[in-house]
Structures are given as structure tokens and as C-alpha cells.
Amino acid sequence: MERQVLHLNIANFMASIEELCSPSLRGEPFIIAPPGEGRTVVFDVSEKAFREGIRRGMSVDLVRRRMGRIPVIAPRYDRCASAERELFALTSRYSPLVEQVSGGHLFADITGMRRLFGNSVDLAARIKREIWQRMGVQPVTGLAVNRLVSKVATRVVKPDGFVYVLPGDERSFMGRQDIGLLPGIGKKLGERMDLLGVREIGDLADLSDGNITAALGGKGIKLRDSARGIDFTPVAGASSHGGRIRVERILDRDIMDAGELTAYYYSLAEEAGMRLRQNNMAARSVEIGLMYTDGKREGASMRLLRHTVTDREIFDAARSLLLKSLRRRVRIRKLSLSLAGLLTGCIQLDLFVPPDAARAEALQKAMDAVRGRYGEKSLRVGITMREDRDER
Questions:
Q1: Are 88 and 106 in contact (CB under 8 A)?
Q2: Is the pTM of this model over 0.85?
Q3: pLDDT tens sequence across 123-172
Q4: What is the DSSP-derived secondary structure letter of residue 179?
Q5: CB hemisphere CA count around 299 (13 angstroms)
Q6: Domain 171-227 homologous superfamily, CATH
Q7: How many angstroms separate the Cα of 9 from the Cα of each of 137, 143, 197, 227, 253?
């Protein structure tokens, strides 16, 4: 039986959610960016602004020079997190293997679902339609035999199309696409590909082992195989040890102060922890990622002594990883935090939680109840107040 992997991506996710909340913005150019002075960058753009040449990562000053009084709207992280939870819940009705990635997109392995929901193409169309009907957003949809090809498919038909790549047609489909659509090809590597005369993914797929190794070293063969549509990466469902929750934050100004970065990481720990508990999951490992002003990336991970559900334990691990990772005197532009080794339903099954951990979990449950009734900002941890001051 051929695998069938669905990729759903809500293009311009933050902007799309803002349009749902403010219908008057539909069809209008606007950008999502945090308020504040200094080097403020664009987090997301509306479809109209994208067509006008505005891109994520641009400075707001540059955007205003190009488009004058374009509306600048502050990001609403709570609304985006709520929409991602709804997207995950809707898709999980049709597959036990759904892997959520931040930014409004996810993968679902729908192999073997024919008897329950019909053939894979009809099921993909059904999921896409239901998301539109229930959430009011149109996800771009790709269906193929693996994650890689389905992801490239969604990049081809943005902002809201649907592509089905027939089994066996992976290489021919990939070959006609621009090399920049292949995951792993960033700006610098794209420039190198251009110097090598590689313009389309098929040009890379045609290179021999010797030529690609000479050009890119040991990682070249894996990238070349990706260009051929080869990918065996499984979709890690939340009920398995391979699941992952990831949250990230692009800073409105580049910083390297450990105290400021720590405050941001507590907010990320709260966001990831809330998603963890809302899906009745617990995490065994924590990973952080840093992107510097010069584009260099670093990451570190830690395996916890036991599965956890609390913001505090997630944060303590993230803070430890952060302090170990701050080895460069270069400002940081982007932060990420990932939870892995996820298990579903184990919160109620753990009968031997240490007393301190049990008290921490009880406190976390009480805090969640307050926030659930009065809003996520109704109860704040002191360290996150520093983040608010920094943004002002």
C-alpha cells in the first residue's frame, strides 16, 4: 500500500487569522508587526501586500517607504494559537498520525483511511472543505507519497490550491519546479546553486554522486535525493514518541541580553505548555533554537528525567539550554522552543509523581483554570512582564 501524506498550510497564517477577526481587512494590504521603536520587522503580510512585493523579515520602515500608510497590526499570539489547536483537532478526526508545525501548517498520514472516508483525494478535499467551513480559512493542500513532495506541492499552488502528485510521479513533478521551492535551499545555498547553473529542482536531481559531493560535500547527496522526491521521514503523531510541538518568536529588535532572552523563553514555554496540556499530552525533551543577526543558527536539546506538563519545568530546561548556548557576542533575531517525546493520555496514568512535581502540576492546573475563564493574560508570571517592557 502506497503511503499517502497530506500537507495543509494556511498561507499568510497570522494575516489570515487577523482577517477573520476584522473582516474589513479582507482584500486589503496590511502587515503584522510588533509595536515599538528601533528595527521592527514584518512577521506576516496579507495576500494583497505580498502581491505588492512586501515580504516577511523586511523592516517596517522600508515597508512604509514603499507603501506609505499601510496598516501595521500587532500580532495576536493567543488567537493564532487557538486557530492552530482547532486546525489540529479538525484534521485529527481523520487520522491518528497528525504532526503540527508552527505557522498554521501540519502533516497528516492518511494511508489506509479508504474504508472509513473514501479514497485519499476525496478525503483530502473533504478535510480542506471542512476547514474552510468551520474556520473560515482556505488551506493550500498537497497530497503525495511522502512529506517532502507534499510540502513542495503546497509551495507551488499558494495561496489556496490543491495538488495531488500521483505515486511514481514524484521526480517528474519536482523536476519542473524552481530550485528555491526545495526545503533546505535558503538564500546562500540558492546563490551557490545559481553559480552551478542549477535553476530547477530537476537540475539538482540529475547530478551524479561525484558532482554533487564535489559541489556541496557530504550533505550534497541527501539534498540531491530530496530533489528526486525521495523521503522516508514518518509523520509523527502526538500519541507516539516522535511527536513535536514547536513555537517561535521573531524579535522586533535584535538583542543579546540574557535577561531579555530569558523573559521571551518563559512566554514561549507558556505557549508550548498550554498547547501540550490542551491536547492531554506530556513531553520528555526540550529543544531550543537561536538565529543570529548574521543568519547563523544554533540549537541545543535536553532530555528530562520524566514526562512533564508544566510551564515551569519546560522553562527551566529552556533557560539552562539558553545559558549554555550563548557563546557568541552577536545579537539574536529569532527564538524557537520545541517539545518532543510526546505521549498522549499519560498525565492521568502517572501514579508515582514526586510530591514537589505533583504540587507543581496542581498549581499549573489551577492557573490554567483561571486563564480559561478570564483570558490568557489574566494571570501573568513576573518574568514575562519584563518582556512587555522590552517591547515598549
A1: yes
A2: no
A3: 999 999 999 999 999 999 999 999 999 999 999 998 889 999 999 999 99
A4: G
A5: 10
A6: 5' to 3' exonuclease, C-terminal subdomain (1.10.150.20)
A7: 10, 12, 31, 21, 28
